[in-house]
Amino acid sequence: MSLNNLLVSNVKRKLHRRDSSESSSGSPVEKRLKEFLSDTPSDAIDDEFEGDEVFQALEMSETLAKKMEEISRKLNKLEVIEEKMRKLDSIEQKMENFSSKLGEMENSVRALRRELNSSKVAQAELDKTVKDLKESVDFGHGRIDQVELKAFKHDSALKEAKEALEKKYLYLEAYSRRENLKFAGIPESEGESQEDTRRTLVEFLSNQLGFHHPEEIEFQRIHRIGKKGDRPRMIIARFLRYADRERVMKNAFKLKETDFKIFEDLPKELLSLRKKWILYSYKKPTVRKKLKTIGSVSGKAQLQGSDYILGNVYAPNKIKEQCNFFVELQQKLDDFITIQDQRIIIGGDFNVIMDQNLDCAGGLPKEKESVKFLNDICLNYDLIDIWKL
């Protein structure tokens, strides 16, 4: 076989392999070469081509096919790239929309920040106004407390002065009546005159009290008091000498089993005080009666031969009411103390802190103005807090 025939046969085999692997593909050169080889006999090919020319054409066709394949792959890649570019364009459009919405949100946030800043400024101004108002109110309360305290002290002074005048007046009135005595249960005759009343009283002194010469007792005035009724009116007699009055009063015990009574001529206010405060019980070492006042219970007793004043108090919480309470408590103690050696025991809830270091733990305790009044009571009556003994 000649070299040309060998080359041609090789070309045919290659073209045949290409046809089997790529039936629908191939370059135009390959197609023309294929058509040429199929239509032209081998001898004609030998005459037509020289071995070198056919080999060169074949190599060129293969190189061209590779380049065409490379171009095709690149074109495919370009299509993929174009598709991705379209997707990127869509994404870019979405990003632009998002960026636009984000810009709107940023504008809204900036507007909200401006409003928040203005609100903070307004809140700061409002807080300052509230603080100023609170300081003004606190200052006003302080001034009011001072005014109330001054008013309370003034009222206390006026009350003390009034009570002192009332006591003085009561003392003078009682002193002016010290020579008087009242006689109850003595029969009264129809149309009785003052002279008849005098004779009736003298007979009473002789018959009931055992005076031997009652006519020697001198009276400034004798008369009956009260309105006439079914029972005889009371006789009031003013003795000329206080000694005679005392003699009659000392013999009043002789009337114990009778219907006759002898009383001291005391003012109504003093009688009321006596009924309210006299709570002595010397037969038993207990308090037989109790005195109930606003916020306190007090009484007198004799224990083991010693006189005691017992008090149970519950003080209010407000300072002004506490001050009034302690002033009233001191007045009550003044009325109770009748002899020098009486002892005082007071218990209960005073609602005050006497010593901030000893009587409390924690917190911010403040000394109340009412403590001064309680300290005055302790100093005046030599009272001691047993908790500190």
Automatic annotation (TrEMBL):
Keywords: Coiled coil. Residues 61-115 form a coiled coil. The keyword Isomerase does not apply. Residues 1-43 are annotated as: Disordered. This is Endonuclease/exonuclease/phosphatase domain-containing protein. It comes from Porites evermanni. The lineage of its organism: Eukaryota, Metazoa, Cnidaria, Anthozoa, Hexacorallia.
